[in-house]
Amino acid sequence: MAAGGDMEDGNGGTEQRCRLYLITPARIDDLDAFARDLDSALAAGDVACLQLRLKDVGDDVIRTAARRLMPVAHAHGVAFLINDRADLAVELDADGVHLGQGDGSVAEARSLLGHGKDIGVTCHDSLHLAYEAGEGGADYVAFGAFFPTQTKETQHTPDADILTVWDEVTELPSVAIGGITPENCKTLAAAGAHFVAVSGAVWSDPRGPAMAVKAFNAALAAD
Ligand SMILES: Cc1ncc(COP(=O)(O)OP(=O)(O)O)c(N)n1
Ligand SMILES: Cc1ncsc1CCOP(=O)(O)O
Ligand SMILES: [Mg+2]
Questions:
Q1: Which of 10, 52, 138, 179 pairs as cysteine with 121 (C-beta 3.0–4.6 A)?
Q2: What pTM does this model have?
Q3: What are the chain's domains?
Q4: What is the residue with the minimal CA distance to atom 10 of ligand 1?
């Protein structure tokens, strides 16, 4: 799905249907140390995508982080998306953008990014928002938060059934997000999620991010 990295979902013939989608912490104090952690995490197993999700920082901080981290992602064949900002995604030649309901339209992002890039849309617990995003030309829709999370204040807590319904009515990939761990991710994959988007359970794992990636891939591969 993306030029610089492989965001193909499992339906593309890979042996594992549901794949891991990583999201950076909202704040990265030591960029070089994070880049080393990222490199070891991506070397540890299959990851479809990394989303740079810095919050409450200036554009130059996002630019610096993207220029340091995108090459690491691409070295492992991992797509690199920017959160919120289609304009920066274009400027930085990222593989796409993730848009929340307040981050501008798919049409606007597509006019900036063109068709070779991935545009994802937050759809909370709403099939209506997902249909709207799909009709607008989104490349994936994201539902969540499925489990309690400390990473983001969320009002929406969908049931996993929404993933099954979505999988039955369309081939447009779905991403599940919110409090996902190696212990609970399989329920979402079994329900139909094409990707599980994860932040805290990887970057805050006391065993280190590489062991967390291994644990997720072991859980997602298990029957
Ligand atoms: C894959 C994925 N899904 C949902 C979100 C949340 O986006 P949004 O609602 O715009 O909230 P912020 O992440 O911008 O705080 C996401 N970033 N990625
Ligand atoms: C960005 C976002 N959107 C809904 S929940 C969430 C946080 C995901 O992070 P974590 O995997 O740590 O719960
Ligand atoms: Mg957003």
A1: 138
A2: 0.96
A3: 19-218 (3.20.20.70)
A4: 100
